[in-house]
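Hi R.,

Here are the chain sequences for the assembly we discussed:
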Amino acid sequence: MIIRHVKTQLIRQRSTFSALLDASFKSGAVLKSLSTNIYENLALEDWIQEHVDLESRSLLLLWRNMPAAVIGRHQNPWQECHLGLMREKGIPLARRRSGGGAVYHDLGNINMTFFTSKKQYDRQRNMRTVTSALKDLRPGLDVRATERFDMLLNEQFKISGSAAKLGRTAAYHHCTLLCAADRSLLSGVLRSPCQGIKSNATPSVPSPVKNLTDEDPTLDCEIIMDAVANRYIRDSGLNGPLILIDPTDELCHPGIHRLTRELQTWNWVFGKTPKFTIDTCFDIPHEAVRPKVMLNMEVKYGIIEKCRIEVPSDWLPLHMCEEFSTLLVGSRFCPSDIAALFVAVSRANPQTCDLQAKLNLLCTKLTNVM
Amino acid sequence: MAACVGLRCVLQSFPSALPLVSRTIVAPSSRLLSKTHLHPRTLSTASRLAAGLKFTDKHEWVRVEDRTGIVGISNFAQEALGDVVYCGLPEPGTKLNQMDEFGALESVKAASELYSPLTGEVTEINQDLADNPGLVNKSCYKDGWLIKMTIDKPSELDALMDEAAYERYIKSIEN
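And here is the predicted structure of the full complex:
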């Protein structure tokens, strides 16, 4: 089978991107983002859905990101991710506007977003485009889409997960595709150390994963993206080249900067978390003893609404414990906020060295949960 | 979505003068029984509850009670959505302009955004939906209401569709 070479062009845009599409790409196009920033790319998806006329045309957007964890719209990041590990490695967390579960992105993962009108919304067809493209490349590859619109390799390993958003008039369905991602970082990032969280947030369905390059080392992201683009062009009867998009270009995409900024706010990333409770206990290693700390909190929209910390009274005076519990109410459930609070309180109420050391340890252990 | 379209095709073969309720009863039973969501009794109940409501083209409805607007999604919308697994609703006190996005319903199908039918302030949200999001599917006109809000611009209500106009609208978009 001859794979048609896809010509790529950087198109000089003097008007907005939607005007360009209306003028030259009436039936549709394949787009590729020049950015590897998760927030810029998520903002691009929402911008396209809001501003491009998708009544009579469909679009495919291909994009990849530097390492990032991405949770679904109604998920709990504390439940889904190892936030401490992510802070350590400088891996950002994003909350997308579509539903679904938590995923890990890096440059070894391809994201594909299928934009259509709501009427033309068809996830099965989109998954067929991807599986067909993979089989065009390697006819012997055992890949298939499931009823949940995941993709399985060899009937065993998840190589793709899907999510979708229905907007005013248009819809998008996006999916990941694991080509050569860092699997150990993936499992580390998506395994939360947090015990005792109860919430009605949408949970993820964990699955064993594999990279396509584990199965066939001759594959890589570029080859696969080209194959998917070609297949999409063929199946949609399109004729156009692949359009490269810069999601930081405000002139071409008026309003995109605001969308990008909103996606990075604490209020969106963490504050959109459905109400949850934490009921947990942990040891504090301190000299020869290991006092047990009981923690009970209610957190709504990322703010601590109720807090009870219980520590053996011979290790820390009861009144101090109660004071801290009260103090934490109204704070964001966030290590830097809590640490700042402890510092401020310690400065205002200087303690003996021993007590101060204990307070610092308690603070550290508490923020580990966040 | 396909199930809904199938039923509409059946209904359209009857004279349009017949009201919705009797059309439902007269339709071939084998067609209706094959659609698990579209039992004839559920449709006629939904239809009675839909009377007196105003609808938007985004398939939301508003009912006015004591100068408060109660907002929900229509039967057409809940069928299209599939089983709702989470309702993302705004905080009471949130000020909304007409057509502002105020939340999202997550179903197995997608996260579907909700658009405010009116300009006003959110006064209450349906707390039952936190533990029982399926109420939106089971009782979209009654127990599955989403938010209550003030009606700051009553003229906006006049511009919304009544039940008959909404039914015509649904037919037109399915074609």
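The radius of gyration of chain B is 16 Å. The first strand of chain B starts at residue 54 and ends at 55.

Let me know if anything looks off.

Best,
T.
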